[in-house]
Amino acid sequence: NYLISKGYKIIGRNVRLRVGEIDIIAQDGDYIVLVEVKTKKNINQGSPEEMVNIHKQKKLLLLTREIEQKFPDKNIRIDVIAIDFSLKKPRINHIINAVER
Predict the structure, then answer these.
(1) Residue 59: what are its φ and ψ, rounded to 5°?
(2) Do 58 and 15 meet the contact criterion of CB atoms below 8 Å apart?
(3) pTM for this one?
């Protein structure tokens, strides 16, 4: 719902590819966006953003290569949505182009 409210068109959710799974594939204007969603209920052991470590970033880059084959005429980017449920009102941090290609 958050992405839709920002004007994104959802193409798929929990999409399985050869090299792994992507939480959301969406379109934002001329971009096909791979969206990694991370949530935390307790941030004592780190924020949801910190869960997108170097290993996860490498996996996202592999997924991007596979998506490029499906959408050869589109620009591809990776966004991260981090949701912190430890607060009274959940905090959503949308990091656009979170992983550099």
Answers:
(1) -65, -40
(2) no
(3) 0.89
